[in-house]
Every structure is written in structure tokens, then in C-alpha cells.
Specification:
Number of strands: 25
Low-confidence stretches: 357-416
Shape: globular
CATH architecture of the largest domain: 2-Layer Sandwich
Helix content: 25-40%
Distance between the termini: 91 Å
Radius of gyration: 31 Å
CATH class of the largest domain: Alpha Beta
Largest sheet: 9 strands, mixed
CATH superfamily of the largest domain: Histidine kinase-like ATPase, C-terminal domain
Structural class: alpha+beta
Strand content: 15-25%
Oligomer: single chain
Length: 616
């Protein structure tokens, strides 16, 4: 039976390709801006009308194209970015040569360009697949691409577009991601009659990058960003990560780049989740902008039509570097918490003051109501309780092992303290405890309010984690070993990780061809579904190549135990105990937030307080 198979027309082929590459107007903007970046532009202007369906114009001052290159640019699979047809050595954002002919097949496309060193500019037009004759054009050095009546050749696609506002948001997101990766380029985005984004050129150093990032990610990120820098085995990572207390309910402010290309990759996202797992509450997301650089031959960017996903040759190595770099940055931050908490407190107080006049009317609290539980005068230091050794007191080790003992009042007289030295500490000198839960401290230029329960909860948790990392995991032997039936290949995979699991307190051994026997489990887990745990571990080994799940489960139990084993709200502390708590917070990484991601303290700058009371 003949005549069934036939060759598709070039126009149809281009429209099929357009369906893969051009999903929405933002896809067109992405391809055109990437071309401008690849051309070496230092200025890029993007203009859209009606969400990009009526008009998309991208103008750049890049190297431009000669008349011959201009005619070739609208042919399929014609590119200047792929050397010797090597798909494993891709060093540009674009490389397939599909974007322009695909756009020209479904819209009215005009490209005007003037190459450096050429006296005249030229323009080529492709109207829904119909190519026009090359003609002269008045244009400065660079390239101007206009796309009008997008999807007019495939009107059914228009039905699947979202509202104009949604399409504008999608375009803005694409432009912002590309702008973040290239701070040296001046970029302007105008949607309709409004200029929504105008980014001046910045240097490519750390300060220039942070300045560009803060313009896109907000003022809070500028003050609460941690520098990330690491390199290992030919892979380097740089960028900035927000403090854990600066978080959101969605991942819209997570920006990941591989060799300058913005991507959304599950390996990278999983690494973020693992690195921040100790610090964020469930459902909250960190703010990050990370730039990964590696040999182009170690990453495949040709696995997705829009190049939004990548595949690494050694994903485990990449993942390990990201987790290590982020955890080092978070550890170096020490006890820092986001400045946003202090600013929010000042804003709330300012709003209250504005609503209540001068504060001397009926809303002013009575003297008795305003009295703190322990007084506002500078408290004297009490001597260490009898159950605390002199060495512990001298090294500020808090007497946390016997917190159920009654504590004295903070007014207990003792010899005077060097107030200047105490205030010079990052968290300052203790002044009072109010409502039996909040410690008030004073630094040289701020007031610090500490949540004693949240702070001690983090300290206890860090101690328990250290115990886990040192291999001191208490084990619970099973009276009757648990036999778990698995696939023979899964048994082999699990046995390869037997040493790692044993370090975490899980003792397993082979039981026949298709089963394992579990003899010991970590005591921290208590009563647990052993068979379910083993099957989850197998699934993780198949996907990730290592058994993180057990470690995460143990850490989750440690977090819960720390919450119940820490200083409770309503417990009155002595000055020695409060001071020891502050000093240990200063030494403990991550103590700026509790195990649930809430801040452990808020710092109010003296300048802001004085401004609140009209003193500045």
C-alpha cells in the first residue's frame, strides 16, 4: 500500500517547530533577548503591546548582521553559535537556529540590522511563512526585531493564552531572569504605555551583581543576602542566598543559572530544599540567586525544546556542591536574622503611634500595665547557681541541663559589670525579661528582643544534630527482626548503602534473594513503620543515589525533641542564664531562627526608634 507517507511542506514544518519553541509571547521575548545577548549587546530595549500578541520589539546595539547573514538567519537550522556541529560544547544561549524561522511562520516578522563596519542597514520580512525581498533600512549599528500579530497563522493557539496581565508578567519574568545573569547589560522593558523595568548597567563583580539582584528581588534581599562562593572538581558556584528568616510561600524568587542560562531544574531545586531544610518551616521557600559554572561538556542543555531544563553528567557532584556552599554560607551568618523583622516592628509601631496621636490620650497604658515583669533598671549579675561549674560560667555555657530548678530574681545584687564590654557583644547586654518569655538586651546602637523559647530550641537542636554527625546515634534493637520483601535489584541497591545506613543507626542485612532483615533502628524514631521506611529509602536511592531520607527523618525528630526540651515560655530566668543564652546564640550558626523558621530575635536600630518618637 503506497502513498501513505509524504513529505511535509516547509511551512508546515516551521509551524510544528513553532509549537515546540513558541509556547506564549514570553517565549518569543526569550529567544530574541538571548540573540541580542549572544550578539554582544550592552543595551537592550524590549517593547510589547497587548501582552505581546500585537507587538514585540527587541532592539539592541550588538554586532549586527550583514545582508548575507540576514537572509540566512531566517532559514531553519542556520546558526553562528555552534562550532563544528558539536552539540556537547555549547557556549551561547541560543544554538539551534529554529527561533526566527519558527516565529516568521506564525506571525509578521521583520528584522532590520546593521553590522559594525557597514555603512548601510538592511531589513528582511517574513509574513506568516512568506519571505519578502531584502531591502535597505534606516537603522543604527545593531539589530531591531519586530514581531506583529503573533499566532495569526495559528489562531487556535490564541485561545490558550492567558489574560494580557498574565502574559505581561510572564514576559517580565523572562527579562528579569536574563537581566540577572548579565548585570553588565542595560535593559529596559516597556509593556503597553508603561515602562515596567529599567536597569542601568552594573559591574560584574559581587557588588554590581547584588545591586542588580536587589532591583529585581527587593530591598529586603539587599540587606539580608549572604554571599555564596565555592568551587570543587571543576564546578564553581557563586551568587547570593537570603537568610532563612527571609522567606516566602512560593518559589517565584528562586533564580538558578547554569553557565549564564536561567533554568528550572529538579536537581538544583532539590539541593536548595536540602540545604535549607533545617531552617525553614514547611511550605516556606528561601530567596536565592545562584550561578553555576562548569564545563559545557558536563551539562546537556539540549533536553528541552525551550532549553528550560538541563541534564548534568554527574548530578550528585553538582548537588553536593550546592548543599555544601549554601550550608557554609548559612553557618558563616552565625546568629544573624533578617532585618525585615526589625523594620516590620518599627512600621507597626509607627502606624499605632499615628493612629493614637501623641500617646497621651485614652490609649496610653496605665503605669501598672506598663510595668515589665522584672523591671527596666539595669539588672545586676547573679552568681552562677550551685549546679553550674565555675568553668561553665566563665565560658558562658548556659546551665541548661537543670532548667527545671527554680531560678532567682534578676534583681539579685552582685558586683558591678563592665557594661561597655557587654554592650559591645552582637546581642548586647541583658536589661530585663518581660512576660516571662522575652529577653530585652541593649547594644551600643540598638535594642534586641529575644524569644527565649525559640532561641533555646535552636541551640538544643544544634547540639542533637552534632551528636548525629559524630555518629553517636542511639540504637533500638528489634525483638523480632523486620523482614521486608523487595525486588532483587532493590535489595542489591540497599546493601550498597549498608555502611551509610549503619552510621545512622539502621542495621540491615540480606535475607534471601528478595528481602532484607532489619535488626536495629534509630531510637529517636520510636515506633515507626519499618517496612515503609525501607521502601522509601529504596525509592530515594533510585532517584538520588544516596539515603538522605533517614537523615532527614532523624533531624525532624531531633527538632521535635528540641522543641519539648528547651526553655519554655513563662519560665523566669536569672541574669546569668539569660546572658549565657545570648552568648551561646552568638556562637551557634543558624541561631537567628528557630527550628520552625521563625526569628529568634528582633533588633530595633536606635535611629529608627528615635525617628519613631520624633527625635530625628
Amino acid at each position: 500500500m503506497s502513498g501513505i507517507i509524504r513529505q511535509l511542506r516547509p511551512e508546515t514544518i516551521n509551524r510544528i517547530a513553532a509549537g515546540e519553541v513558541i509556547e506564549r509571547p514570553a517565549s518569543v521575548v526569550k529567544e530574541l533577548v538571548e540573540n541580542a545577548i549572544d550578539a554582544g549587546a550592552t543595551q537592550i530595549e524590549v517593547v510589547t503591546v497587548s501582552g505581546g500578541t500585537s507587538l514585540i520589539r527587541v532592539t539592541d546595539n550588538g554586532s549586527g548582521m550583514s545582508p548575507a547573514d540576514l537572509e540566512l538567519a531566517i532559514e531553519r537550522h542556520a546558526t553562528s553559535k555552534l562550532s563544528e556541529d558539536d552539540l556537547f560544547d555549547i557556549r551561547h544561549l541560543g544554538f539551534r537556529g529554529e527561533a526566527l524561522p519558527s516565529i516568521g511562520s506564525i506571525a509578521h516578522l521583520s528584522i532590520a540590522s546593521r553590522a559594525l563596519g557597514h555603512g548601510d542597514g538592511w531589513e528582511v520580512v517574513v509574513d506568516r511563512g512568506d519571505r519578502k525581498v531584502l531591502k535597505p533600512a534606516a537603522i543604527d549599528f545593531g539589530t531591531r526585531v519586530e514581531v506583529r500579530e503573533l499566532f495569526s497563522a495559528t489562531p487556535a493557539r490564541l485561545k490558550f493564552l492567558k489574560s494580557e496581565r498574565s502574559e505581561n508578567l510572564g514576559i517580565g519574568d523572562i527579562v528579569k531572569r536574563l537581566a540577572m545573569a548579565h548585570p553588565e547589560i542595560e535593559i529596559t522593558l516597556t509593556t503597553g504605555e508603561r515602562t515596567g523595568l529599567r536597569l542601568a548597567r552594573a559591574s560584574r563583580d559581587r557588588d554590581g551583581l547584588l545591586s542588580r539582584l536587589s532591583r529585581i528581588m527587593g530591598r529586603d534581599f539587599l540587606s539580608d543576602a549572604l554571599a555564596v562562593e565555592a568551587e570543587r572538581d571543576g564546578i564553581s558556584i557563586s551568587g547570593f542566598a537570603g537568610l532563612p528568616t527571609l522567606n516566602r510561600g512560593d518559589s517565584t524568587l528562586q533564580f538558578l543559572f547554569v553557565n549564564g542560562r536561567p533554568v528550572r531544574d529538579k536537581v538544583l531545586i532539590g539541593a536548595l530544599r536540602a540545604a535549607y531544610g533545617d531552617f525553614l518551616p514547611r511550605g516556606r521557600q528561601p530567596l536565592v540567586a545562584l550561578f553555576l559554572t562548569l564545563d559545557p561538556r558536563d551539562v546537556d542543555v539540549n533536553v528541552h525544546p525551550t532549553k528550560a531544563e538541563v541534564r548534568f553528567r554527574d548530578s550528585g557532584r553538582v548537588r553536593g556542591l550546592i548543599i555544601s556552599a549554601l550550608r557554609h554560607a548559612l553557618a558563616d551568618a552565625g546568629h544573624r536574622a533578617a532585618d525585615a523583622g526589625g523594620r516590620a516592628t518599627i512600621d507597626v509601631a509607627a502606624a499605632f503611634a499615628a493612629g493614637s496621636g501623641t500617646g497621651t490620650g485614652s490609649h496610653a497604658p496605665s503605669p501598672s500595665a506598663a510595668q515589665p515583669a522584672v523591671g527596666w533598671s539595669t539588672p545586676q549579675r547573679s552568681s552562677p547557681p550551685t549546679h553550674v561549674t565555675r568553668g561553665m560560667a566563665e565560658t558562658y555555657q548556659a546551665p541548661f541541663d537543670a532548667l527545671t530548678m527554680p531560678s532567682g530574681r534578676v534583681e539579685t545584687p552582685i558586683e558591678p559589670v563592665d557594661e561597655a564590654a557587654a554592650q559591645a557583644q552582637p546581642l548586647g547586654a541583658v536589661r530585663a525579661q518581660v512576660h516571662e518569655n522575652y529577653i530585652i538586651a541593649q547594644t551600643e546602637n540598638s535594642v534586641v528582643i529575644v524569644d527565649q523559647h525559640a532561641a533555646h530550641e535552636r541551640l538544643v537542636y544544634q547540639r542533637m544534630k552534632a551528636m548525629l554527625s559524630e555518629g553517636e546515634v542511639a540504637r533500638q534493637g528489634l525483638l523480632i527482626p523486620e523482614i521486608v520483601t523487595l525486588d532483587p535489584d532493590e535489595v542489591a541497591l540497599l546493601l550498597e548503602a549498608v555502611d551509610q545506613l549503619d552510621q545512622l543507626g539502621l542495621s540491615i542485612e540480606k535475607f534471601g534473594v528478595d528481602a532484607v532483615a532489619v535488626r536495629e533502628i534509630p531510637a529517636l524514631l520510636g515506633k515507626t513503620d519499618v517496612a515503609g521506611l525501607i521502601r522509601d529509602l529504596v525509592s530515594e536511592l533510585l532517584e538520588e543515589g544516596n539515603a538522605r531520607l533517614l537523615q532527614e527523618r532523624l533531624e525532624a525528630v531531633c527538632s521535635s525533641m528540641a522543641c519539648h526540651g528547651s526553655v519554655r515560655s513563662g519560665r523566669r530566668l536569672t541574669v546569668t542564664e539569660m546572658d549565657a543564652l545570648l552568648r551561646e546564640m552568638e556562637r551557634t550558626p543558624g541561631s537567628g531562627q528557630c527550628n520552625h523558621g521563625r526569628p529568634t530575635y528582633v533588633e530595633l536600630q536606635l535611629n529608627d526608634i528615635e525617628r519613631l518618637f520624633g527625635r530625628r
